[in-house]
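Memo to structure team: turn this sequence into structure tokens by end of day. - J.P.
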Amino acid sequence: MAQAPSADSANIPPASPPAAVVVHEPLTGSARLWGTLALSAATFMNVLDSSIANVSLPAIAGDLGVSPNQGTWVITSFGVANAIAVPLTGWLSQRFGQVRLFTTSVILFVITSWLCGLAPNMTTLIIFRVLQGLVAGPLIPLSQSLLLSSYPRALAGLAMAMWSMTTLIAPVLGPLLGGWITDNIAWPWIFYINIPVGFASAFITWRIFRTRESTIRKLPIDTIGLALLVLWVGALQIMLDKGQELDWFHSSEVVALGLVALVGLVTFVIWELTEEHPVVDLTLFKSRNFWAGSLALSVGYGLFFGNVVLLPLWLQQYMGYTATQAGIVLAPVGLLALLLSPVIGKNIQKLDPRRLAVVSFVVFAVVLWMRSNFNTQADIGTILVPTVIQGIAMACFFIPLVTITLSGLAPDKIPAASGLSNFVRILAGSFGTSIATTVWQHRAALHHAQLSDAVNPVSTAATSALSGLASAGLTPEQALSSINRLVDQQAYMLAASDVFYVSALIFLALIPLVFLTRRDRSSHASAGSADLASGAH
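Reply from structure team:
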């Protein structure tokens, strides 16, 4: 029998009477096949939407009349909203039922995707991306849950392996598809392609799973905790996104946002630690494996995602790459991960996940060090090599770190721990994007000033270049403009190298953190495998 939560405090409504938990028999035949395809398609659509926009940011920013740096809000707004929605999945699924919630989320995701494509300006697009992120929160955890209920226990590993493949293929196809659509059709179609996939997934899922609804219970929700969560996370993300534009703490708006974020965070922590039914169970951080694993996973993911967004921006704005070419550079990132992840997932219990995590951090550091040595003459082959190698790091990153994070916890704590670690990780991805692009802009301004100092009447190279441009028929103003473009290209290349290099050092600094955790030989590798797609997302 399911136990209803207590309602000791006066402000908490009484829960519904205990209801019998319904256990459904596994699906068979074509129903299981179509159910697997429908659930995987929804997950694929969700993960694809996180990577497909990366190479389209310059086109979106240019079309909507904002700077490419402001264009990254398309990524960060979705990520923050998605992170906030993840911890609510458990409450929503018990309140409305897993099948109803999943189907509704897919339909709403399709509608918000359509609205994103129709957005006439950046403000409207960001609002629709926030809505899209909110409704996408339940998709990944519920697709896992519904899929596992469709298979016999003996085939659970196979089910999750098949499901995980969709989340590894999406990052490969996303940049390629996004680049091709942007160059050959128009950027709104990166959102419109969700419409047929989403409606098909929702229709098939409802037809197959509507008679397999989960137990519905009326549970109390921590509305104050949720409001505080939205307040401090939203204020912090807006501060990070607008800081560069408003000159950081020289702006009263940025100072106000920082104070709201700080006070909101402190109040949120105090409230959640004293609330009987917290929206986020912060007591999980008492576990050394959980806090150290979550920190390593989140910082690592923030570095990874920030650099994944930065690379195509640099290539398209200052290296002359088209969106399609930038997509080709990013696409191979998942190839080796696609091959290695099933092997690692199958053997995770035989291996020390801490050592695999170290391998991941070292490979990430090597990849970023290689990128820090790029110059403006680097060809596409040179830029592709570290992208391919990065697949090894991805394969050794998500499964081992999720396994470490969830190890040593009681089985009844695993769902809450998985939700909290995903919340922190997705949030770190959005913060990492904002920080990486902000640092890039700041360092570029610094390098531009230093390089401009060399363009003066006593500089032989500068006078020679200006003379050559003048002899080609350019006016002095046109010649100086051409020199300035070259200085810009060098400044942003050097700034990108700075970000890559520092990111490599931070990855190496994360290695001791992994060894603060203890190896738990009884930990369930399946938890890590099941959460792999959340990591890829």
